[in-house]
Amino acid sequence: MSKNMVVTQPRPYIMTTVSNQWTSGICDCFQDLPQCCLAFWCLPCFTCKTAHEAGECLCLPLLDAFGLIPPMTTALRVSVRQRYGIEGTVCKDCVYAFFCGPCTWCQIAREIKTRSSPITLVNMSAR
Predict the structure, then answer these.
(1) pTM for the whole thing?
(2) Which InterPro entries does the record cross-reference, listed alphabetically (predicted)?
(3) Which of 38, 59, 68, 83 has the most Cβ atoms closer than 10 angstroms to its Cβ?
């Protein structure tokens, strides 16, 4: 009887999900229903919570009330876009902040949540 010995084991192939696009669209608020509800019922609380999660001062979003184009919404969207390498322009960020403020905050919150715990796929088959 002949015995075969396996000399090499398959190595894991690790792939992460990193993209240069937003992981959700501006109108995908219902992807995270608890956050959507908090944004709908208490937008100031939600914006402060999201700013804190982004590493910014808790009260910065409250300054949005003093500008025509919400400066903190625009600034945080630009910051998150640059942090995660998401393509876009400041002009688009201004448009989203002005016309879709609550949706913009929900998108920022979803992005931080998704990117802070990325999905890692490990394939154990031989390559």
Answers:
(1) 0.74
(2) PLAC_motif_containing
(3) 38
